[in-house]
Amino acid sequence: MNRMDSATATAGSGLKPEHFPEAAADTRPGLWFEVHPENYMVAGGPRLAWLEAMRSRHPLSLHGVGLSLAGMAPPDEAHLARLKALADRFDPFLISEHLAWCVHAGSYAPDLLPFPRTLAALDRIAGHIDRVQTVLKRPILIENPSLYMHLRGHEMSETDMLTALCTRTGCGLLIDVNNVHVSASNLGFDARQWLDAIPTAMIGEIHLAGHAADAQRPLLIDTHGASVAEAVWSLYDHLVARIGPRPTLIERDDDIPPYAELMAERDRAHNVLTREPCHA
Questions:
Q1: Measured on CA atoms in the order 228, 263, 31, 55, is the torsion positive or negative?
Q2: Which residue of 38, 195, 202, 270 sits 20 to 30 Å from the alpha carbon of 175, by its own alpha carbon?
Q3: Distance between CA 98 and CA 135 in Å, rounded?
Q4: What does DSSP assign to residue 217?
Q5: 176, 207 contact by CB (below 8 A)
Q6: What's the CA dihedral at 185, 187, 188, 193 to 10 degrees?
Q7: For the chain, percent helix, then strand, then coil, each to nearest 5?
Q8: CATH classification of 3-274, choosing from 3.40.50.300, 3.40.50.1220, 3.40.50.2300, 3.20.20.150?
């Protein structure tokens, strides 16, 4: 981990091509940016030159969507090699991936899919995380996904699974607060109790994003296409009050607003992270 970036990064945003000139010139304290590494796993060209320029100005994190950590097969070795090359070149202060699957028997699904939380799954996923961390020669963070339906066959809670994976592999957690809110609403559990069950020391990063209500069913959908909801901000305040500051990202991948609008949300998160703690 880049120690200087880890110490100085507060709140950041996903980096979008249309925002590059403004992002490159932005001097906000603690500002950092995140990209999906799958968009930059190329040998050269303008994408990497663009990322080099941004990396010279701001801390950078890599947030993967293609390792399929919860899949039946181990992570693809060619994919891992490209990810390592990118990480070696840009020295991100964080690397993260979703606790979900998207690959099965050579077929790719354009989604991050759930799995039964069994002891067998725990063993399998721990092995996958170990392999990724061995190749990268550094720990990663794993993110809780949004959940939309009850699956049969669970043998442990989601928080117990996340905690067990961290204990066994030495990885950390990326807690997506919007995903917790969406899952809690869809599956009927208490979001604050979920957050309170996560050991403080395991949390290395926080994500905040927007969601939408399904027009046909009482279902929330993690869209990354709207502003962060006030209910999610409330959960974020609660989490930071308990665990202290953690690098926090505003995710927006659809209906991209002007840069200033994204930065207003980023600045709100920055203010939560940097405010003076209350003393009794």
A1: positive
A2: 38
A3: 18
A4: S
A5: yes
A6: -80
A7: 45, 20, 40
A8: 3.20.20.150
